[in-house]
Structure formats: C-alpha cells, structure tokens
Amino acid sequence: MKVVVTGAGGFIGSHLCRYLQNKGYWVRAVDIKWDNYMSNYADEFVTADLRTAESCSKITQGMNRVYNLAANMGGIGYITEVKAEIVRDNVLINVNMLEAARKSNVDRFFFSSSACAYPTYKQESAAIVPLKEDDAYPADPDNEYGWEKLFTERLCLDYSEDFGLVTRIARFHNIYGPEGTYMGGREKAPAALCRKVVKVSNSGKIDIWGDGEQTRSFCYVDDCVRGIEQLIESDYPNPVNIGSDRLVTINELADIIIGISGKKIERVYDPTKPQGVRGRNADLTLVTKVLGWKPEISLEQGLAKTYRWIESRLQ
Ligand SMILES: NC(=O)c1ccc[n+]([C@@H]2O[C@H](COP(=O)([O-])OP(=O)(O)OC[C@H]3O[C@@H](n4cnc5c(N)ncnc54)[C@H](O)[C@@H]3O)[C@@H](O)[C@H]2O)c1
After folding, report:
1. Which of 72, 268, 307, 311 is most buried, judging by how many CB atoms fall within 10 Å of its CB?
2. Nearest CA to ligand 1 atom 1
3. Average confidence (pLDDT) over 200-227
C-alpha cells in the first residue's frame, strides 16, 4: 500500500504518518514547511505548496490512497481574525488535491473536515446538545474556516457521485496531544493552557479567554488517527464525527492541567478575547454504529502526556 499524507509536517498529519508506517504502508509525507518534532516517520518527504495543481499532480502519482490534511488553520484566535487567506488557501489545496487524486486514479481519498462546519444556532448555550452529523444543515458555521470545510465536504461527495472517486470525510472535534503547535498564535486551547501553566511560577497567574464557562470536548490524537484509518477502510460515504463526547468547560480543562502541574495558580479572565461558539460537543452515535470507533484515552491521561511534552520543549 502506497499512501500520501498532506499536512504531514503538521500535528495530526505527522502522527498519522507514523501510524500508517507502523501498519506497514509506504508513506509519502508532504508539507509546505516542517515544524513538527518527530523524525523518520515517513519513507519520503516532499516539500510542496499544494495550492498549485502541478504540485498536487506530482505527489499523487503512483499512490493508492490520499490522506488530505493540509490546511491553513489555527486556534480560535487565528480563525476568527483571518478569513480570506484561510478560505483561498484551503479551497485551492482541496480542489487541486481532489482533481489530482481523480486523475492519478487513487483508490481512496480522506478529507479532514471540522466541527466548525456545524451551525452557530446549535451551539449558543454552554449546556449544548451533542452535535449529530445531520445537524450540519441548514448551514450556518460561525466562521469562514467552517464554511470552507462544508464546501469541500460537498465537493468530496460530488467527486464520488460524478467521477467514482471513493472519498471519506471526518469532522474532527478539538484534537490535541504532544507534538502539536503550542505557541505562536495558531495553538488551540489545551496546548495554550499547558504552555501558560508550564511557564508560570507557583502561585502565579494565567489568563483565560472569556469567562472560562464555554464548553468543548477534546479527543487525543492517537484515538483520532485510529479513527481516520477505520474510516478510510470503511464503506461509509458521508461525514462522521471523530471526537469525544465528554463535555468540559475551559475552566475544567484548566483545572485538570493545573492539577497535573502540581502548582497553585490564579486565573484572570479576559472577556475581550475570542471564545468561538458558547458550547460544542460531539454525538458519537453514528461513528460508533458505522465504524465501531470510540475514543479510548481519557482527558486526564492525554493532557498529562501533552503537558509533559510541552514542559520538555519549554525547558
Ligand atoms: N487539530 C484539530 O483539532 C482539528 C480540528 C478540526 C479539523 N482539523 C483539520 O485537520 C487537519 C490537520 O490539522 P492539524 O491540527 O494537524 O493542523 P496543522 O496546522 O498542524 O497541520 C496542517 C499542515 O498543513 C500544512 N499546509 C498549509 N498550507 C499548505 C500548503 N499550501 N501546501 C502544503 N501544506 C500546507 C501546514 O504547513 C501544516 O503543517 C486540517 O485539515 C484541519 O483543518 C483539525
């Protein structure tokens, strides 16, 4: 099995390459830049800008499968502030990758969509009803990144129907773990909180965006890559959630991380910072039914590994 993983210099992509290599696949890793922290996790490393059709064509040749994870993305601060560049870059990457996969006759194409595709009106309360796949319509994502994901989901289904390309689509819900972005503005809540707690001295203060009562669910990266592989192997053609259904507030997330650190830390709330939707959780009924998948690593276990890794980087 020869496979290409795009976005392989990033967080989930690098973990996925290692997982697929361990399965015995020949793995081509592609990214525009290499800021990941692992080494020797693919058989071939290609540096390419996938906004161009030519690059996408080259990297898909001779491949049985495409795992398309490349995206211009970041945490809530980044995706709230940047709109046109995110949509432009991601539309170009995804359109060019689908077309290249079709022309190169690949067997299967995986697309990483996002919980950001779900409509705002389903996520206005912190005591949220978990989001089912069908809830995506009528569409009203709260940011442009989510609109682009929804568009590409549809394009994947169109390529399946019109050209017979087998596409599989996962909607990831807050994936976290070691070797992800933890500084620079693109990091997400678990990594940002771990970094803040590592850096502050005992009895110091950390800032929390909003009032900390906004809710999310978080899924450890090892569970995520296992879900990706089960999905691409499956015969299920429509989008499925890959995430956790354990809802926590950002304050509870901070409690766990502070507990891991063993420090005594005060919180300062910053209402001027973006918080995204008020509450978001994943309904796992469909994914459990069609794939038999559910997350296995607890938030406490996953955050402990993530915290220790960020701590080692900052030391
Ligand atoms: N991490 C999450 O919680 C989460 C949630 C929902 C969806 N997703 C999706 O999963 C995928 C992977 O996310 P991640 O967390 O690993 O992000 P990441 O930012 O760590 O990885 C994305 C990679 O894509 C690469 N890339 C961007 N533009 C490129 C280009 N023009 N050409 C080639 N490579 C390019 C980046 O350099 C980066 O290494 C993305 O599609 C993302 O939208 C992630």
Report:
1. 307
2. 175
3. 96
Across all residues in the chain, what is the average pLDDT?
A: 96
Determine if ligand 1 sits within 6 Å of the CB of residue 152: no
- CA 73 to ligand 1 center in whole angstroms: 6
Which amino acid residue places its CA nearest to atom 38 of ligand 1?
10
Q: Is the CB of 174 under 6 A from ligand 1?
A: yes
Average pLDDT over residues 82-103: 97
Q: What is the 3-state secondary structure (H, E, C) of the chain?
A: CEEEEECCCCHHHHHHHHHHHHCCCEEEEEECCCCCCCCCCCCEEEECCCCCHHHHHHHHCCCCEEEECCCCCCCHHHHHHCCHHHHHHHHHHHHHHHHHHHHCCCCEEEEEEEHHHCEHHHCCCCCCCCECHHHHCCCCECCHHHHHHHHHHHHHHHHHHHHCCEEEEEEECCEECCCCCCCCCCCCHHHHHHHHHHHCCCCCEEEEECCCCCEECCEEHHHHHHHHHHHHHCCCCCCEEECCCCCEEHHHHHHHHHHHHCCCCEEEEECCCCCCCCECCECCHHHHHHHCCCCCCCHHHHHHHHHHHHHHHHC
